[in-house]
């Protein structure tokens, strides 16, 4: 007996050497990238499901293939930018040899360069992340994720001089939240700092918050 065409055991068709799952992943990526661009250009209010589909060149059918609704797409866009920031910071620390101060300085240089090269995506992470309840909730979670990253890196960099784990997370949260607000103020023109000044302030603040005071 032949297997019915709609059986779960039927292999997904491939087109041009790409599986159905590959094509779904590619479509989702296009939708997320479109949402990021729209958040940066039009803000949360202008990032509608219709606008995302138009920007991505996909139909509503494919939107709902990837997301339950607009809020899920907004959160996915924020996550994509946050992932990019994390990769930049970790790569800079891991790719730099020398003292803890030198490695922290390298990470801040890389982050500030990323912000200056991609102010649109930085705007999504720092400004639009507060524009909708779903984004604000995810932003709070991401601050915790980055606080944990700071605590982990502090332990690696400073060893016994770093705060114990529970306190390190609190210190990390203070650092991440404070630096985020400072960078947002710089993006908005509310404070005047060049890249070198921002790196120095960020580096000094990291060490002061990461290391146990006497």
Structure commentary:
- This protein is mostly helical and 214 residues long.
- It has one domain: Orthogonal Bundle (Tetracycline Repressor, domain 2).
- It is 74% helix and 0% strand.
- The protein has helices spanning 20-46, 49-56, 60-66, 70-94, 100-117, 119-126, 133-158, 165-187, 195-210.
- Helix 1 (20-46) packs across helix 6, helix 6 packs across helix 8 and helix 8 (165-187) runs antiparallel to helix 9 (195-210).
- The longest helix is centred in the N-terminal third of the chain and has 27 residues, at 20-46.
- The chain is elongated and about 60 Å long.
- The relative contact order is 0.09.
- The model is unreliable at 1-12 (pLDDT under 50).
H/E element sequence: HHHHHHHHH
Q: Briefly note the CATH topology name.
A: Tetracycline Repressor, domain 2
Spell out the CATH superfamily: Tetracycline Repressor, domain 2
Number of helices: 9
Multimerization state: single chain
CATH class: Mainly Alpha
Structural class: mainly alpha
Number of domains: 1
Quick gist of this model?
This protein is mainly α and 214 residues long. 74% of the residues lie in helices and 0% in strands.
